[in-house]
Specification:
The chain is mainly alpha-helical and 117 residues long. The protein is 41% helix and 0% strand. The chain has five helices and no strands.
């Protein structure tokens, strides 16, 4: 019986570590788009907590604007992604994120007025 519980604890610990590392990988992308911290994971995911299905912008980024497939890929923010209108609301991705020209680079201060994002 002890080996059953020991094995169960090992599986639970492995699951917790895997979930934590996956969340960390996704969260780094928030800093790869201008003003990404305003909406956090909801910039790309249906759920504000992240993970699970992506919204239209997230699908666009995943399909065409990552340096590589998977968690290690970095968002390629620039003029091309900025000029698109992922959600079809008449405002470009760049306008919505405060960088209409797509000139912001990761590590730069967030552009524009945060309240307008």
């Amino acid at each position: 019986m002890k080996s059953f519980w020991r094995g169960s604890l090992v599986l639970i610990a492995a699951g917790v570590l895997a979930a934590a590392s996956g969340a960390e990988a996704r969260a780094q992308r928030v800093g790869q788009i201008p003003n990404g911290g305003v909406s956090g994971c909801a910039n790309c995911h249906v759920s504000a907590a992240g993970g699970g299905p992506r919204n239209i912008f997230g699908q666009m980024v995943e399909a065409d604007f990552l340096t590589s497939v998977g968690f290690s890929g970095r968002v390629q923010w620039g003029p091309e992604l900025a000029k698109m209108d992922a959600d079809g609301d008449g405002f470009t991705n760049g306008q919505e994120l405060g960088d209409p020209e797509g000139l912001w680079k990761a590590g730069d201060a967030d552009p524009g007025e945060v309240a307008a994002v």
